[in-house]
Design goal:
mainly alpha, DNA polymerase, domain 1, hpI Integrase, Chain A, 14 helices
């Protein structure tokens, strides 16, 4: 007979701790995956039995043999830090000394205004409004997908982005040209929500803290996603049938295909719209601090990268060949 008081398995403990800290489902999946890979790399030894040597070995393996991107190695490092600190209650003060995967210095891909116009013209109807809003506000992909009805202030033409990168809220402009299209879009979304309610559904996902504080908020109109999925789905954590937001992979594919259809030769992703937003604002003469605030960058140095892709032809220097013309 199984011991009812037996301690949960390590990965179950890790999952429970992640949920207790209200981390996203995406983070939960990533952290669990890295924990499994770390354990398998060391022939299924328990992390409690391992320490500095094994962690350094795994992270160095990722950097040197697997040649993963710096961001990927940092993700693995964060997952192991969480596992040891939050589950095993072991501090790792030396972890920052581990060999880092070198982060290549690459300039962001930026479209011209003409290219943006052509790209947006080829985005399919299901994603067209979202794509235009992302370019018009500089939002990240998930920031756009997670917008709630209450985040749009039509009277002030403002948009509230909740819990952006780093868990920070920020306010950005709501493009005047999208006020009416968004209002018309929300009428359709509201009709679909009311139909869901009549069928016994109509609930949207909320964080545990919000759900505890406002038990009925999940069915209220103001908490619904601005860009909901066309289909209901079962939440794998709770088993509740809800209407989630649009699938991020769907938008990624739509933008990629729109770039092909528009004849663009650049490597275009949804994030390219954010890069283009920032660059075009700087081209228009807006102060870099203003652009920093709109993008939600913690450090202005992050925003400064866009000054290197302004359309000035090699740092504004005229080629000597052109002087001969």
């Amino acid at each position: 007979m199984q011991n009812q008081s037996a301690k949960p398995k390590l990965l179950d403990q890790l999952r429970d701790r992640i949920r207790l800290k209200h981390y996203s489902r995406r983070t939960e999946d990533v952290y669990l995956d890295w924990a499994k890979r770390y354990i398998l790399y060391h022939n299924k030894r328990h992390p409690q039995e391992m320490g500095k040597k094994e962690i350094e070995g795994f992270l160095t393996y990722l950097a040197t043999e697997r040649q993963v991107a710096a961001a990927t190695q940092n993700q693995a490092k964060a997952a192991l830090q969480f596992l040891y600190k939050e589950v095993l209650e072991i501090q790792l003060p030396w972890l920052d000394e581990v060999e880092q995967a070198k982060k290549p210095k690459r300039l962001p891909v930026v479209l011209t205004e003409k290219e943006v116009h052509s790209l947006l013209a080829h985005v399919p109807q299901a994603y067209a409004l979202l794509a235009r809003l992302m370019y018009g506000t500089g939002m990240r992909l998930l920031e756009g997908l997670r917008l709630r009805v209450q985040d749009l202030d039509f009277e002030r033409a403002e948009l509230l982005i909740r819990e952006g990168k780093g868990g920070k809220d920020r306010v950005t402009m709501l493009p005047q040209s999208l006020l009416k299209p968004l209002q018309e879009h929300l009428k359709q979304v509201k009709q679909a929500h009311e139909q869901d309610l009549l069928k016994g559904y109509g609930e949207v996902w909320l964080s545990e803290s919000v759900a505890r504080k406002y038990p009925n908020a999940g069915r209220e109109w103001v908490w619904q996603y601005v860009f909901p999925s066309a289909r209901l789905s079962v939440d794998p954590r709770s088993g509740v049938t809800r209407r989630h937001h649009l699938d991020e992979k769907g938008l990624q594919r739509a933008i990629k295909q729109a770039a092909v259809d528009a004849g663009l030769t650049k490597n275009v992703t949804p994030h390219t719209l954010r890069h283009s937003f920032a660059t075009h604002l700087l081209q228009a003469g807006y102060d870099i601090r203003t652009v920093q605030e709109l993008l939600g960058h913690k450090d202005v140095q992050t925003t400064m990268i866009y000054t290197h892709v302004l359309n000035k032809g090699g740092m504004g220097v005229m080629s000597p060949l052109d002087r001969l013309a």
